[in-house]
Amino acid sequence: MRAVITLTTDFGLGDPYVAAMKGVILGINPEANVVDVSHSVRPQRVVQAAFITQCAWPFFPDGTVHVAVVDPGVGSGRLALALETPRGCVVGPDNGVLSSALPEEARPPAAAGLARVKLPEGYRAFSITNRRYLLEPVSATFHGRDVFAPAAAHVSMGVAVHELGEEVDSMLALPPLRACRRGDGSLEGSVLHIDRFGNAIMDARADDLPDGPFEVDVAGASVPGPAQTYAGAAGLVALIGSSGYLEVALPNGSAANELAIGIGDPVLVRPRR
């Protein structure tokens, strides 16, 4: 079976960056099946990238090599990592963008924020430093092309992950993407992602929502929920999307545009009185 390599970046498609990464990969492994997860992550939005990869990566076959490059620290002292997991290899900067590859119980608590965690059993990480598997000369500003793409391609060709560099026993990880429950039973969270339909996806999960009707306070509006489908709603409505997370939607319109919602905006979910 052809090796599968996925790409998630904040590079967009108006510049040559994604094509350059794919060119490097195909130059090393011409038979690679390169799949775009998304290149529309907002610039430097590591948490958004973690959400997008969390939604996509579980559906790929075992042995897939995943590349995630949202890298505001490119060229700094941050590590370039290759993480070996029970289901495949994950490659990217050590800044939390690879969090989705870890089981939730291995990630830091919400109060800690982005934090360094020990790798759980069955996971090994290696700093990508072996020049043999890099594209020379390595640019200080484009490790997606010169570090992560070639490393992923070599792994897809059968190079053992440990050949990429020295082993490390920890990595930076984000807490699980989950709204915090307050003493009154409401949930306090934020907007994780806005999809192309203008649905604002929040970090409130289906199994954490209040029993019965509730309201979502976001961007100065109170939106009723829960609806079952987009089609059955009239006006702004809150419902559980396919990701298992709460969304605010506007059927046949854009909730994000209607309310001027932005990624990172605060959200409060409370029982409807």
Structural commentary:
The protein is of the alpha+beta class and 273 residues long. It has two domains: 4-173, S-adenosyl-l-methionine hydroxide adenosyltransferase, N-terminal (Rossmann fold); 180-271, Beta Barrel (Elongation Factor Tu (Ef-tu), domain 3), CATH 2.40.30. 15% of the residues lie in helices and 31% in strands. The chain is built from four helices and 17 strands. The chain has helices at 17-28, 46-56, 143-156, 255-259; strands spanning 4-9, 33-38, 64-69, 80-85, 88-93, 115-118, 124-127, 167-168, 170-173, 180-181, 187-194, 200-205, 214-218, 221-225, 237-240, 245-249, 266-271. The strands form three sheets. Strands 10, 11, 12, 13, 14, 15, 16 and 17 form an eight-stranded antiparallel beta sheet that branches. A hairpin with a 5-residue loop joins strand 11 and strand 12 (200-205). Helix 1 packs parallel to helix 3 (143-156). The relative contact order is 0.14. The model has no long low-confidence stretch (mean pLDDT 96).
- What's the CATH superfamily of the largest domain, by name? S-adenosyl-l-methionine hydroxide adenosyltransferase, N-terminal
CATH C-level label of the largest domain: Alpha Beta
Q: What is the CATH architecture annotation of the largest domain?
A: 3-Layer(aba) Sandwich
Largest sheet: 8 strands, antiparallel
Distance between the termini: 56 Å
Structural class by sheet pairing and helices: alpha+beta
**Low-pLDDT ranges:** none
Q: What series of H and E elements makes up the topology?
A: EHEHEEEEEHEEEEEEEEEHE
Q: What's the total count of β strands? A: 17
* Shape estimate: elongated
**Average pLDDT, all residues:** 96
Rg (C-alpha, Å): 20 Å
Query: Structurally, how many domains make up the residues?
Result: 2
Strand content: 25-35%
The CATH topology of the largest domain comes to: Rossmann fold
**Portion in helices:** 10-25%
How many helices in DSSP terms?
Answer: 4
